[in-house]
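Risk mitigation, structural track. In case the binding assays with nickel (II) ion fail to produce interpretable data, a predicted complex structure has been prepared as a fallback.
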Amino acid sequence: MALRNILVEGEERLRKKSRPIENIDDRILTLLDDMAQTMYENNGVGLAAPQVGVLRQAVIVDIGEGLIELINPQIVETEGTQSGEEGCLSIPGVVAIVERPQKVVVKALDRSGKEVTYTAEGFLARAFCHEIDHLSGTLYIDYPHQIVSTQEDEEK
Ligand code: NI
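Fallback model:
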């Protein structure tokens, strides 16, 4: 495994559409492993492949309940709305309030190529929406949002 460099907002690749993954080969498995290491190293709760410069449809999420890897994820159902705090490793040091669905159903493939379905609510639903948005080049700042803190506000 290796740490990968996280692209920061302003970088063109963050705004491109990612391509579906047709073959889950060693390169993709290494990508997923590297993404996990990179996310944990940066204390993130999610990471999408385009954030490390790879325009393929892979995202990972871990909100403290274990690592979830999603290949070619699709949001197939949404329900309700929630308002809450959100950050992005590509927009370092900023936290903002963004509206998201309260509940989502996501279909994807896991690393073995098996179809998986996740029904998520609350913060996990938010994390799925945020990461899957990266695959179409969308960042949370594209939505109405209210910045609640920046790194300059913190003591460190
Ligand atoms: Ni992000």
